[in-house]
Amino acid sequence: MVAVKKDKNTGDCLGTGRRKSAVARVRLRAGSGKIVVNGKPLEVFFPTAQHQQDVLQTLAHVGQSDSVDVSVRVSGGGLTGQSGAIRMAIARALLGMSDEHFQPLRDDGFLTRDSRMKERKKPGLHGARRGTQFSKR
User: Fold this and answer.
1) Which residues are registered as beta bridge partners of 5?
2) Which of 29, 118, 124, 126 is the most exposed place for a label (fewest CB within 10 A)?
3) What is the pLDDT of residue 1?
4) How far is the CA of 23 from the CAs of 2, 16, 38, 52, 130, in angstroms?
């Protein structure tokens, strides 16, 4: 079971998500569906539709797209890792709002950490696995 965090002073629901090297901290509060990432609107921070869809997917899955405001602080990684981290953090924060969200989010993999990381470069190779070009002479 995921630990559920709630802010005692404001009643906001908090969640932390990680993917690749990115870490996202999310704060959910009742509102009109406004999403702010690092002080910028979602469309400005994530210009591509795929990254926006990753962020909005969790809220749409439980039908909370227009009833909560989302404030996000994200750091590390690139845009794909950051959008994946936000997706997981929103799912964890939604558990603080209602326990009935647990089963649908769990069944569709929103609460599962994607553990794939970049493989390290090995000595004598160009990358993690790419070797040198074969030379006959």
Assistant:
1) 14
2) 124
3) 57
4) 17, 7, 12, 17, 29
